[in-house]
Write a structure and sequence with these properties.
By secondary structure, the protein is an alpha/beta fold. The chain has a single domain (4-198), classed as Rossmann fold, CATH 3.40.50. 54% of the residues lie in helices and 12% in strands. The chain contains nine helices and five strands; from the N terminus they run βαβααααβαβααβα. Helix 7 packs across helix 8 (148-164). The longest helix is centred in the last third of the chain and has 20 residues, at 186-205. The protein starts with a strand and ends with a helix. The structure holds cytidine-5'-diphosphate (2 copies).
């Protein structure tokens, strides 16, 4: 049976962490759609025209650790504002979403544009300060030299660009359950997400 869980939200809200745990709990496959835009952004930084980069993206392009840098994140949010880049990535995401056995996709427009029919929709968010603190800790742990103010400015700039673009802007779907993780640890955020999905499953099967 195909069952799609759509998880959207702003940068560093905990979407990936929650999505991986929810997918493991239900035995579903997981796709981090941010990686698609990061891979296109990285290819643009390497000199490839972004629409061409999106059309010729291969699975191997998603497996590069270099995709996790703030520079690539900024490039990703720039190419993500190009309608033809987004259009080139739609079919792959929709096919993944409808695979037998269930799927969790996390991103910015999963519940609104990619899978408006998703059986469960979550919008995972947190204050910009908390998100920047988490991302800053993550980068510091990896040995990347950066300060909190730079990370906060990066997060804010990306959110503003993602929310203001004409095509598939970042916003919660009307029927999404919002989870604000500002004051939640990871276990609480995951348990809240699983409970919300279980409610959606019950509603579907009633
Ligand atoms: O995928 P997204 O960018 O939304 O966020 P993430 O990579 O899942 O989470 C960003 C960082 O916040 C990671 O280091 C998580 O471990 C951490 N996190 C947290 O401290 N508390 C939460 N409730 C959720 C995530
Ligand atoms: O991990 P983090 O939340 O910082 O970023 P990400 O999820 O890897 O996404 C990187 C960028 O890709 C975002 O800032 C968006 O501009 C773009 N993106 C998007 O437009 N649509 C998606 N479904 C996923 C990501």
């Amino acid at each position: 049976m195909a069952f799609t869980i759509a998880i959207d939200g702003p940068a560093a809200a905990g979407k990936g962490t929650v999505s991986r745990a929810v997918a493991a709990h239900f035995g579903f496959a997981h796709l981090d759609t941010g990686l698609l835009y990061r891979a296109v952004g990285a290819r643009m930084l390497a000199g490839i025209e972004p629409v061409e980069a999106a059309r010729t993206l291969r699975a191997e392009d998603l497996e590069d650790d270099a995709l996790r840098t703030p520079e690539v994140a900024q490039a990703a949010s720039k190419v993500a504002a190009i309608g033809a880049v987004r259009a080139a990535l739609v079919d792959f995401q929709r096919a993944f979403a409808r695979r037998a056995g269930g799927a969790v996709l996390d991103g910015r427009d999963i519940g609104t544009v990619i899978c408006p029919e998703a059986e469960a929709k979550l919008f995972v968010t947190a204050s910009a300060e908390v998100r920047a603190e988490r991302r800053h800790r993550e980068l510091t742990d990896k040995g990347v030299q950066t300060d909190f103010a730079t990370v906060l400015a990066d997060v804010r700039e990306r959110d503003a660009r993602d929310m203001s673009r004409a095509d598939a802007p970042l916003r919660a779907a009307e029927d999404a359950v919002e989870i604000d993780t500002s004051h939640m640890d990871i276990d609480t955020a995951v348990a809240t997400a699983i409970a919300a999905v279980e409610t959606a499953v019950k509603e579907k099967t009633e």
